[in-house]
Amino acid sequence: MSIRIAPSILSADFARLGAEVRAIEAAGADLVHFDVMDNHYVPNLTIGPLVCEAIRPHVKIGIDVHLMVEPVDALIPLFAKAGANLICFHPEASRHVDRTLQLIRDHGCKAGLAFNPATPLALMDHVMDRLDLVLLMSVNPGFGGQKFIASTLPKLAEARRRIDAHMAAGGQPIWLEVDGGVKVDNIGEIVAAGADTLVAGSAVFGAPDNDGGYHTVMKQLRK
Ligand code: DX5
Ligand code: ZN
């Protein structure tokens, strides 16, 4: 299984975002994780399509847009146009989950569903064939730098079983991403429980010695 690392730019230096995304790409990042918060679905306010468009020419790797917004649909064409490759949203924030997933695919992006720590995995049941990504939140969404919630591990194993069963039955591949509190010292057990895509914000951008880039911490995470 190939493992993808997606540094979250929520913890980057926003005054030098172009250089920051170039640095993580140079250090081997597979995706840029782009956290969109609206002070409505979550109690924080971050960045939108204009910033996505601004960083797009700086890197070749995919931009993984995590929408923590409500409502969702109106932003999808804007992010697709701004260069997003993957767009993921929270099912509680969309009245019509199936329609929103299709809307993302109609705009040429991969579609993902994000599960909060208390959101049951059963919400994926009837839309499996529309999913490219399942994102499991291992913290409550809204802020970087929170502590990993341990109950995510059994939930992750359960999500892995569902996805494997889907693929074994001839279904399309679905990535399984974990977001929140991923660090050098717990990434091993998170991968062992079934994740193939890891978001890491403060672990990457807050690395104590970032060696003028992020090579050391990216290597430690990869190992
Ligand atoms: C939280 C965001 C995460 C966050 C992760 O709501 O979705 O992507 O940036 O940050 P760390 O890795 O610091 O927990
Ligand atoms: Zn995120």
TrEMBL record:
Binding site for substrate: 8, 66, 142-145, 179-181, 201-202
Cofactor binding note from Swiss-Prot or TrEMBL: Binds 1 divalent metal cation per subunit.
GO molecular function terms listed in the Swiss-Prot or TrEMBL record: D-ribulose-phosphate 3-epimerase activity; metal ion binding
Function, as annotated: Catalyzes the reversible epimerization of D-ribulose 5-phosphate to D-xylulose 5-phosphate.
Protein name as catalogued: Ribulose-phosphate 3-epimerase
Catalytic activity entry: D-ribulose 5-phosphate = D-xylulose 5-phosphate
One matching Pfam family: Ribul_P_3_epim
Record-stated family: Belongs to the ribulose-phosphate 3-epimerase family.
Biological process (GO), any one: pentose-phosphate shunt
Active site as annotated: 35, 179
Keywords for the protein's UniProt record, in alphabetical order: Calvin cycle, Carbohydrate metabolism, Cobalt, Isomerase, Manganese, Metal-binding, Zinc
EC number of the protein: 5.1.3.1
Gene Ontology CC terms, in alphabetical order: cytoplasm
HAMAP family: RPE
Top-level enzyme category: isomerase
Pathway connected to this protein: Carbohydrate degradation
CDD domains listed in its UniProt record: RPE
Residues at which a divalent metal cation binds: 33, 35, 66, 179
InterPro entries in the record: Aldolase_TIM, Ribul_P_3_epim, Ribul_P_3_epim-like, RibuloseP-bd_barrel
PROSITE patterns found in the cross-reference section: RIBUL_P_3_EPIMER_1, RIBUL_P_3_EPIMER_2
NCBIfam families: PRK05581.1-4, rpe
Cofactor(s) required, per the database record: Mn(2+); Zn(2+); Fe(2+); Co(2+)
